[in-house]
Amino acid sequence: MKENNKSANQADKDVSILDYEILPKTHSSMYLMHKYWARKPANIVAHYIQRYCPQNGIVLDPFMGSGVTILESIFNNRLAIGVDLNPMANFITKNTGIYADIPKLEKAFQIIKKDVEKKNSLFTKLFELQCPSCKSTNAIITHIIWLKKKDDLNHKLEEIRFKCSNCGEIVANNSNHNEIFISIKPFVLRQEKNALNLLSQEQIKNPNVSFKYSDNQAFIQLRHNLRKQPELTELFTKRNYTFLVFLINLINGLPEDYEYEKELLRFCFTSSLGQSSKMVWVINKRKGKKLKKKQVGSWTHHFFWDPSNFFDVNAWNCFKHRFSKLKKGKRDSNKRNNDSQSIFQLANSFKDLSIEYPVLLWNKSSSQLELPDNVIDFVFTDPPYGDSIQYGELSAFWNVWLNQNMADYKKKIELDEIVINSHQGKNLNSYEKKLKEVFNEVFRVLKPNKYMIVTFHNTSLKIRNALINSVISCGFDLCQILFQLPPRVSIKSMLHHEGSPIGDYYIRFQKPLQKTNDERNSILKSLNDEEIYKIIKENFIEILKKRGEPTNFIWISNFLDEILYKAHIFPLDNLEIYITRLKNSNYFNISKDGKWWFPEKPKDCEKPLTTQIEEFLKKYLQDHWLDVKISDGTNKQKIFNEIYRKFRGIYSPDKYLINQIIEKLVISHIKCGK
Fold first, then answer.
1. How far apart are CA 419 and CA 385, in angstroms?
2. Does one domain contain both 119 and 223?
3. What is the pLDDT of residues 242-290, one digit of tens each?
4. Peptide bond preceding 571: is omega within 30 degrees of 0, i.e. cis?
5. What is the pLDDT of residue 11?
6. Residues of 356-387 as b/e, b for ≥16 C-beta within 10 angstroms?
7. DSSP conformation letters of 634-647
8. What would the mean pLDDT of 571-580 be, rounded to a whole number?
9. Closest CA to 650 of 20, 51, 23
10. Is there a domain that residue 1 lies in?
11. Which of 372, 329, 381 is nearest to 73 (CA)?
């Protein structure tokens, strides 16, 4: 397979060249089959794999998540080892990558569909009603809106949408004494009330889990009524819960010769659960304007909640929609399997890892890796984000439907999950300690002189410092910290200059040939406050001089950890105090929009970064106009990446600034008749 970047051998020769920002691409259909949190852009992951791992080398991801690192390694002709405590990580990675027999998958779906939609099935008893207009019994409920006002004890029916084979879609709501709504409301309420009785008639086991730990404390990521009743069943209406139990039993009951298809349909099932739950909020407005027809939201939060106003979406329709996504995604992954030197096949052990069996997945903690010393060529990983995403808690929502022993599952995350969670008794210190256990193992198995990229979404300075310190305390050298904006970002986020930026850090570490005695602590202890303050101040001044123009704080702070590390004063627990002193000093002026600059411009400032970019882009457009010109203007992706390749490190420009320059110069170029 042809690579788009320099080979890994070439990269080893010029590692002094800094990595640079890459404009992220949106996820392909392969990565849209199933929800997971903090999934990184595949094109960026692939770039680092191509740059730092030789072909047929071994890539390790000790925090595998949804498996982007594993999949991009395989499809770029590397071998891959993925490790994750969460069984959902293995489940999603395997079903995303495995080659699918799509005609056979369609046959398996049709078997399920026939049982669901047959006359007098549990589905028809739950969702079918008589159309008030034409009296047809072939009307199917598609959506229900439930509303709980401030003083109400329970949710009440607000709107019913159904689709009649004769009349089409009908919306009946609780306003102006709507006759259709009044006529069908009692029947719909009876269906909801009697739903669970249908399960007992079918003698089907009901999956459930209490969102509590072994000491009876509730999960930390619960909202509203779920704090009082922390149960899986509270996340669904009785109607949808009953149907989902029925559906997963149909999938599990498929004939034995549909083994792989059964797994993919279970994968499709868990991907549909969020949209089948109460966590689907009602969208009443778009851009401040009230909508004529309310729109369906989705489960976008990192917690479980039951909003006061929610959509009850027909769970069978959700599954069918996800099945269409599944087929599209599997065509994508099939193509990538075909285009690579080997297809996604699981090895049983490290000894079996080969071109024929290029994937090894472990459902365990990475604190003890069953690997020899010095065998890994490259590590790319995305560790847990402190307290911002509770992967173990959130994944319970899926795991319970996959016949996991939930008591064992909860004990495992209590014991081994690396997270900050007061209900698990885990704080910042325990978070850093557990990270060290993992990175010690990673250091052991990585080949000397090789690299690890750790990508991390910054939630706070202390958490970011804990992560970096956990790595360097294991013997790694910190080489570079790169800030990467996400694929889609608002102008407000681009200009955000205080607090946590909207984006990710890509931090490059190297395993040195020999562990050196760490002098950082002794150097840091030998410095007093004024000496530390002076070092920070001088580096602020140096950054601004190099950029040559007023700069938002985010673009200064992004380089601080790396600068402090090289000055042997990392980590600093009280860095915020020094920053506050600088803000209040007379060394800098801070504008209303948060840009830092000097009271008077120093003579030794470099040319303003904006001017440098404009000059570069003018020449680039002259030399490459035909390459970037397309039907609707220019290929911005290509231009962005060329600018980021040229301006790296301290010179990394703001994405919003680049966009403004491109718009101005391209329009000018077109007007000049180029």
1. 7
2. yes
3. 999 999 999 999 999 999 999 999 999 999 999 999 999 999 988 888 8
4. yes
5. 41
6. ebbbbbbbebbbebebeeebbbbbbbbbbbbb
7. E-HHHHHHHHHHHS
8. 84
9. 20
10. no
11. 381
- The answer on 248 and 145 residing in a single domain is yes
> Which of these, 296, 272, 312, lies nearest to 112 by C-alpha position?
272
Specify which residues 446 forms β-bridges with. Answer: 376
Question: Which are the contacts of 476, defined by CB distance < 8 A and separation ≥ 6?
Answer: 439, 443, 452, 509, 510, 511, 512
Give the Cα-Cα-Cα angle 359, 73, 436 (nearest 5 degrees).
80
- DSSP conformation class of 366: T
Q: What angle do CA 517, 523, 526 make, to 5 degrees?
A: 140
What pLDDT score does 326 carry?
A: 98
SS3 479: strand
Q: At what angle do helices 238-252 and 259-276 cross, to 10 degrees?
A: 170
- 502: nearest Cα among 493, 511, 510: 493
- DSSP code string of 254-277: S-GGGHHHHHHHHHHHHHHHHHHS
pTM of model > 0.85: yes
Average pLDDT of the residues of the chain: 88
Q: Which range of residues forms the domain containing residue 669?
A: 609-674
The CA distances from residue 616 to 24, 233, 344, 622, 624, in Å, are 22, 59, 43, 10, 12
What's the one-letter identity of residue 144? I
* 157 and 32 part of one domain: no
Q: CA 388 from chain center: how many Å?
A: 12
User: How many independent structural domains does the chain possess?
Assistant: 4
Rounded distance between C-alpha atoms, residue 611 and residue 616, angstroms: 9
Q: How far is CA 35 from CA 39, 56, 89, 275, 415, in A?
A: 9, 30, 11, 11, 25
What are the structure tokens assigned to 74, written together? 């395989």
**Alpha carbons within 13 A on the beta-carbon side of 363:** 13
Please give the Cα distance from 425 to 435 (Å, whole number): 16
Name, of 162-176, 454-468, 482-496, the range with top average pLDDT. 162-176
Residue 29: partners with Cβ closer than 8 Å, 6 or more residues away = 325, 328, 329, 331, 332
Query: pLDDT > 70: what percent of the chain?
Result: 90
Q: Are 165 and 138 in contact (CB under 8 A)?
A: yes
Tokens standing for residue 19: 């990595």
Residue 339 included in any domain: no
Tell me how long the chain is: 674
Q: Around Cβ 288, how many Cβ atoms within 10 Å?
A: 5
Dist. CA 338–CA 99, nearest whole Å: 9
Question: Cα–Cα distance between 527 and 568 in angstroms, integer?
Answer: 10
3-state secondary structure of 58: strand
Q: What is the DSSP letter of 280?
A: -
CA angle 608, 610, 614 (to 5 degrees): 120
Cβ neighbors of 386 (< 8 A, separation 6 or more) are 419, 420, 428, 431, 459, 460, 463, 466
- CB-hemisphere CA count at 13 Å for 175? 7
CA–CA gap between residue 453 and residue 46 (Å, rounded): 12
- CA 155 from chain center: how many Å? 32
Residue 244 has, within 13 A of its CA and on its CB side, a CA count of 33
Geometric angle at alpha carbon 70, from 65 and 74, rounded to 5°: 165
Q: Are residues 628 and 655 in the same domain?
A: yes
* Same-domain check for residues 56 and 163: no
pLDDT of amino acid 522: 65
Q: Are residues 214 and 201 in the same domain?
A: yes
How far, in Å, CA of 657 to CA of 510, rounded?
Answer: 32
